[in-house]
Amino acid sequence: xxxxxxxxxxxxxxxxxxxxxxxxxxxxxxxxxxxxxxxxxxxxxxxxxxxxxxxxxxxxxxxxxxxxxxxxxxxxxxx
Length: 79
Prior knowledge:
Structural class: alpha+beta
CATH superfamily: NE0471-like N-terminal domain
Strand order of the largest sheet: 1-2-3
CATH architecture: 2-Layer Sandwich
Helix content: 10-25%
CATH class: Alpha Beta
Mean pLDDT: 95
Radius of gyration: 12 Å
Largest sheet: 3 strands, antiparallel
Number of domains: 1
CATH topology: NE0471 N-terminal domain-like
Number of strands: 6
Order of helices and strands: EEEHHEEEH
Distance between the termini: 19 Å
Low-confidence stretches: none
Shape: globular
């Protein structure tokens, strides 16, 4: 499993990610912001509260999260 070590936000619901192996990249999650867990993330201030949990997953205060392996694959395929 690939763990995220840092995350920051760019405009347009883009996450800038760094993984434990040094891989870095950007992932847009604008197309995933639907449903009860992800709808609140449409608020840019709430979206900006993103963090990395102790398992290396990207998460928000409402317990919405994104699997690090899927994010890693997106970053690698964009490179």
